[in-house]
From TrEMBL:
Gene3D superfamilies: 1.25.40.80, DNA Cyclobutane Dipyrimidine Photolyase, subunit A, domain 3 (1.10.579.10), HUPs (3.40.50.620). The lineage of its organism: Bacteria, Bacillati, Actinomycetota, Actinomycetes, Micrococcales. Its cofactor is FAD. InterPro entries: Crypto/Photolyase_FAD-like_sf, Crypto/Photolyase_N_sf, Cryptochr/Photolyase_FAD-bd, Cryptochrome/DNA_photolyase_1, DNA_photolyase_N, Rossmann-like_a/b/a_fold. This is Deoxyribodipyrimidine photo-lyase. It comes from Nostocoides japonicum T1-X7. GO terms for molecular function: deoxyribodipyrimidine photo-lyase activity; DNA binding; FAD binding. Keywords: Chromophore, FAD, Flavoprotein, Lyase.
Length: 458
């Protein structure tokens, strides 16, 4: 008897464990052809992410014994063609929830259906799929704390059972997996499901306890660094939540804190699902009258921000970490975003674009809504007065100045917290560190005045 073929179209789910769509494909009784479509819309930006993607795909290709097939082009053309080539009637996917992913999948579904085939979506990249957690009245949540309470009360299924032996379909032509990407370097190290599970297990064993107390300290590197693995779906958040629930002390501060952080990821995905337009526009319209600066002078200031040369050491250290590592500590994401929006008076999408271009964990939901949370245009109820002081934040969360000296070599000669305030030391600028591009106290006053006027005009 000839066995048919089911296609497993992989996107943000580059793993084999806890993979409901893979289980569905295997349960069909057919051979499974794993496919990744290099969609030019997605690979045109975020060069580091494209490189990281290549490394993750290479790891997945190894895990499938080389069965993974790469094809390039518009998925709405590539998949019907491939399905026809291998005689597949079904394409299995993990349900996509981003605005572009939803539009693209609708087009692919239509193209397959027109050919008498089906797109079958099983599971999502989240513990609870966006659009599911609702208020009693059936409305979506707009604020994080009640959402996270309802999300925990809703609960999530156990990780998907291992699919047993997968019969991979082989002998199908494709492009080389690493075509166009360079292996090695910071963007590609530690990629793949095995690396994700090892990192997670190491963090559970050695990092969780410190996490609750020290997660805000960029100098100590105490967070899980799981965001990059989650972005490519090398691990499913449900696997992480199941491990946290099995922890010997499930009510410990570390377990509770990490669960809450994962809830933030789910909340942002839910908000974007409800409001697809909020990917690049203000979610709340209360501040639409707020004037932002633009033009050549502002453009130069923005460039200084991008390069980590604002003259504010904590901001600059964060921006340089982003360029060097493709990752930035959450505290710094908040402080640098606040600096762009509230000290330079620049609309948040400019910064969100820069982050997405350089973050290995760049994620449209968490990035745009992280930015909007800081900018005061997002889900937080009354954040307009929250303006991070870049010097106080640095002294508080990097008390010995170690994080500054790690990323800003021009300040390495200043001992301890002195690195946060070179202007207070006679030799502070001896090694070429730039003067401050704006006066924070003055820009803070200006920001508050603009916000107040915009609120009154609304
Ligand atoms: P941990 O502290 O170890 O947290 C564990 C996991 O919880 C993370 O991997 C992440 O999946 C989730 N998480 C933690 N904090 C948040 C948060 N505030 N919002 C959403 N999820 C969270 N996160 C991204 O994954 N991609 C982005 O593009 C992104 N852009 C951001 C932009 C701004 C302006 C801000 C303020 C935050 C952004 N975040 C983003 C959220 C957060 O900064 C990162 O998830 C976190 O720093 C990743 O490091 P970690 O894995 O060590 O985090």
């Amino acid at each position: 008897m000839t066995v048919g073929v089911s296609i497993l179209w992989l996107r943000r789910d580059l793993r084999l464990h806890d993979h409901p769509a893979l289980v569905a494909a295997v349960d069909s009784g057919e051979e499974v052809l794993p496919v990744f479509v290099r969609d030019p819309v997605l690979t045109a930006s975020g060069g580091v992410r494209v490189q990281r993607l290549g490394a993750s795909l290479a790891a997945l290709s190894d895990a499938t014994g080389g069965a993974l097939v790469m094809r390039g082009g518009d998925p709405a053309d590539v998949l019907p063609e491939l399905a026809s080539e291998v005689g597949a009637t079904t394409v299995h996917v993990t349900r996509e929830t981003t605005p572009y992913g939803r539009r693209r999948d609708a087009r692919v579904r239509d193209a397959l259906v027109a050919d008498g085939r089906a797109l079958v979506a099983t599971g999502t990249p989240y513990a609870v799929g966006p659009g599911i957690v609702r208020t009693r009245a059936g409305a979506p949540y707009q604020v994080f704390t009640p959402y996270s309470q309802a999300w925990r009360a809703h609960g999530w299924p156990a990780p998907a059972a291992a699919p047993g032996r997968v019969r991979w379909a082989t002998g199908v032509d494709g492009d080389p997996v690493l075509d166009g990407t360079r292996p090695g370097g910071v963007a590609t190290s530690g990629a793949g499901e095995r690396a994700a599970l090892e990192r997670w297990e190491g963090f559970l064993a050695d990092g969780l306890e410190r996490y609750a107390i020290e997660r805000d300290r960029p100098d100590l590197d105490t967070t899980s660094r799981m965001s990059v693995h989650l972005t490519y779906g090398e691990i499913h958040p449900r696997t992480m939540l199941a491990d946290l629930a099995r922890h010997p002390c499930p009510s410990s501060a570390g377990v509770q804190r990490l669960t809450t952080e994962l809830a933030w990821r789910e909340f942002h995905a839910d908000v974007l699902w409800q409001h697809p337009g909020s990917a690049w526009r203000d979610l709340r319209t209360t501040l639409t009258a707020l004037p932002y600066d633009e033009g050549p002078v502002t453009g130069e200031l923005v460039e200084r921000w991008r390069q980590g040369r604002t003259g504010y050491p904590f901001v600059d250290a964060g921006m340089r970490q982003l360029l060097a590592e493709g990752w930035m500590h959450n505290r710094l994401r908040m402080v640098t975003a606040s600096f762009l929006v509230k000290d330079l008076h620049v609309w948040w999408p400019t910064g969100a674009r820069h982050f997405l271009d350089h973050l290995l964990d760049g994620d449209i939901a968490s990035n745009s809504h992280g930015w909007q949370w800081v900018a005061g245009t997002g889900t937080d109820a009354s954040p307009w007065f929250r303006i991070f002081n870049p010097v106080d934040q640095g002294k508080r969360f990097d008390p010995a100045g170690d994080y500054i000296r790690r990323w800003v070599p021009e300040l390495a000669h200043l001992d301890g917290p002195a690195a946060h305030e070179p202007w207070r030391h006679p030799d502070g600028y001896a090694h070429g560190y730039p003067e401050r591009i704006v006066d924070h106290a003055e820009e803070r006053r200006e920001s508050l005045a603009r916000y107040e006027r915009a609120r009154q005009e609304k």
